[in-house]
Every structure is written in C-alpha cells, then in structure tokens.
Amino acid sequence: MHSAKKKVLTRLSNEPVPSTMAIFLDGKKFSTKTQEKVGDLFNHSYNENADHYVVTDAVRQSYLGDFVPECGTGEAIADGLLEFIEEKDGIEISDVTILGGDSTNVNTGPKGGVFAHVEKKTNLLFHRFICLLHLIVLLLRAIVGHFVGVTSGPRRFHLLWGSRLPL
Asked: Is the pLDDT of residue 51 over 90?
C-alpha cells in the first residue's frame, strides 16, 4: 500500500501543471528515512525529526509536490518553496496571486514569516489566506480547555475535579 501511494504521489508531482494562481502549503514534523547504498546493499537509518511541506494548488484542488527545508525558520521554508516552484514545470511565481497556509507564526509572521520572506525575495505582493479549519481547531481547543479542562494527551482530558475522561 505504501509503495503504491508513493508511486501515485511521485507521478502527480512530476506532471506539469497549468499556471497556478493559489498555492497553499502545510508542514508537519516527522522523522525522515534515508538510504545509503554501500556496494550492493542499502543501509537504512532514521534522521532526527524534520519539517516536510506539502504544496497544493487550491484552485484546482490538486497536489503539486512536497519539499523539505533546511530548517524550520520562515526564511528557510520560503527558500524551499521558491526553489520548489522554480523546479516545477508549469508554475511561475509571477502567476501566483494567493499564498495560503495555517495560522502559525512561522507562516504569517510580519517580518520573519514564510509569506513575508517570499514577498521580499520576489518583490511581489500576495493575498494571504489562512486555513479556516486550523482556526476552528484552535477555537475549539480553547473552548474545550475552558469548559472541560486541559488535555493530557491526544486521547484524554484532565477534568477540573481531577478524574480523567477518555475520548
């Protein structure tokens, strides 16, 4: 199943796309697997957690590809995104009018965020869109934290009187 999914994503990321107007990116940290070929054998090892970013075309609702920035700063992510766009057939940064992502400071920061760095490096202005689902999750987390209690993990709450409520 994993190899079939990887083949489809590779095929989709290699297809040229028509000019894109809205690019959204979303990142997640997870450990990356590396392969090193020594003779006829492959040595597998896991690196530390690294940021992985998925890039989508919001207009056509399609997967464009992904990239791994050097580090998790806004400038490094912006460099990775611009390099990705430069290498991707059919995408010109001048055709992009909308940049979107979640509401984290690394994306939306006015001086050090990804969007700000992309604008500085390209001398272009973009409409910035924030994912509403991410904002709703933040709102619901605040409401549940206020009325039910803080979470003690992804599947449990600590209630105000000390007992636990499983999800």
From this structure: no
